[in-house]
Design a protein that fits this description.
The protein is mainly α. Helices cover about 65% and strands about 0% of the residues. It has a domain of about 40 residues. The radius of gyration is 16 Å and the shape is extended.
Length: about 70
């Protein structure tokens, strides 16, 4: 939830048939409270780390810029 973006909230709002703004506020509140109240995790055992794709970030930046120019 920490890295949830606009498209993820949009998809969730459509799947749950809820208003995007309401769900976005809920997500922001959840993230804020999680960051404020949760201690740093202590990882033990096997931990899986997802890969980060730089190209996906660049694709998002281009898409965002073109949306802003409209």
């Amino acid at each position: 939830m920490h890295n949830i973006d606009f498209e993820s909230v949009k998809r969730l709002s459509e799947e749950l048939e809820r208003d995007w703004g309401t769900l976005n506020s809920l997500v922001k509140d959840f993230k804020r409270n999680l960051a404020k109240n949760a201690p740093d995790p202590i990882l033990t055992g096997e931990v899986e780390i997802d890969e980060m794709y730089i190209h996906a970030c660049n694709k998002w930046i281009k898409k965002t810029q073109s949306n802003l120019e409209r």
